[in-house]
Amino acid sequence: MEPPLNVLNEELTEEEIKLQEKEAKLAIKKELLLNDINNCNLNTLEQRVAWLLNHKPETRNSDVVLQIEYWKVFEADLLGGSYIDLDNYKKATRLPSLARSRAVIQNDHKLFLASKDVRKHRGKLDDDQRSAAVSREKPSKSYNVYADESGKTQTYLVVGSFWILNGIGTRSLVDTITNFRAENAITSEFHFKNINKGNLEIHLQLVDLLVEHATTFSFKALYVSRSGIKHNDQALEQLFFNLLCLGVEHENSTDRSPLPRSLSFSKDLESEGPDKLMLASLKERLATHSGTKYNHELYLDTFRAVDSRELIFMQIADLFTSSVNRVLNSPGDGPKDEFANRMLEAFGMNYQNTNFESLGDCTSILDIV
Questions:
Q1: pTM given for the model
Q2: CB 29 within 8 A of CB 302
Q3: Using an 8 Å Cβ cutoff, are 139 and 55 in contact?
Q4: Which uninterrupted H or E stretch holds 36?
Q5: Per-residue model confidence (pLDDT) at position 165
Q6: Which domains does the chain have, with CATH numbers?
């Protein structure tokens, strides 16, 4: 039996306790910052700088490039084409402010790091990092995957996912959804289980909004019969692993989103401990797969479990995954069924009863058997 936390703390020095507290606070801030940039919440300087570092890798190595891109994206009204006059220059965000935010994001949160050479020049690559650093730098393009699971007590076990293929383009999607929520006074999260006759039309309108931005993302799902499966957790890990492998293969082989790319994976939070173990195992297995299959051209980035209330993209993953689950496990003729049918049909999914498969540009649904 482990000793109580206070007993453990008594064995630490005051300096060690303060360091642990600092690291815990930084971990919380890092998670909040990741959620903000995933949701395109770009209200503060740090959020905007992090968003640029994430989506424009060339800004990670040069504060001057960062400043220029910041002006272009967030202060375009101050520019005159490729020029900025002296009066507007006084109003524009200054280089030291941007450099400080970039340093906090890269040095404190260890996010969106510069190249090894630049970090060495800046004095931010210590001996341990030098020995552990991989020879390949992070690719400029990415797969950002948001995944959910369903059917744990039903005939089929299902995992579904929402793949962001164009990070810059998704800002427009987030803005559209944000405006849609405001116009319709929507304060709660989008969740399949909450769909009813009264809010069905709003959810169908959301599908139409997604269709308008379909070039920036794709949906992918995988399902298997639960017959003979004794442990759902083990089966789900295997399903997620195969979903990511098949998803990358599909995007790469069709040239819709070819490698090299980095892969970030977020799953809906179920249970913190088991989720961490699953994600660690997934990342380790995918690292091996990347080396043998793609010569490390698939770079593995952040893997985390997130509450769907915090991310609109996780809510979209829920709507898609639950739609697949509905058609497979409990089809009917109610509001949820009308939504599920519209959701799947809108993205080119053809199905008949419980047997369906689509490998179009936007949707891939496969039976693992």
A1: 0.79
A2: no
A3: no
A4: helix 14-38
A5: 86
A6: 5-132 (no CATH), 142-367 (3.30.420.10)
